[in-house]
Known about the structure:
Layout: E1 17-21, E2 28-33, H1 43-54, H2 59-66, H3 70-83, H4 91-109, H5 114-123, E3 124-125, E4 128-129
Antiparallel strand pairs: 1-2, 3-4
Amino acid sequence: MYKLLDRCPTCGGELEIRELHCTNCDTVIRGHYTPCGFCQLSERTRTFIRDFVRNRGNLKEMERASGESYWTLRARLNDVIEELGFPVPTQEDEEVAERRRSILEQVQMGDLDVKEAVRSLTTLKGGRES
């Protein structure tokens, strides 16, 4: 079975689906439909998503299985996020998230008092330290 075309092979324009046909009962559905967002993804991106799901979203497992570095896989994940039309976290957003994780891990390990952790977390305002 072939992948549904998402771009015109002549001019590269967007295509729309106008007719669907049931191979079982011969029902024909006519209208104007656009392919789903996942259908429009590149084969490379769909393969990455399949691998990502197979590894339960664990980039470290993907790193071991594929031989690609964690940072390469992370960059590819950002490409997928962007290709799907979502905003990609900035370096600053990721640094703040890492700081939050670090604070919570310190509390969990008993290296940081809960009150001090709360103070530290409240200084991380809107994704940025104040």
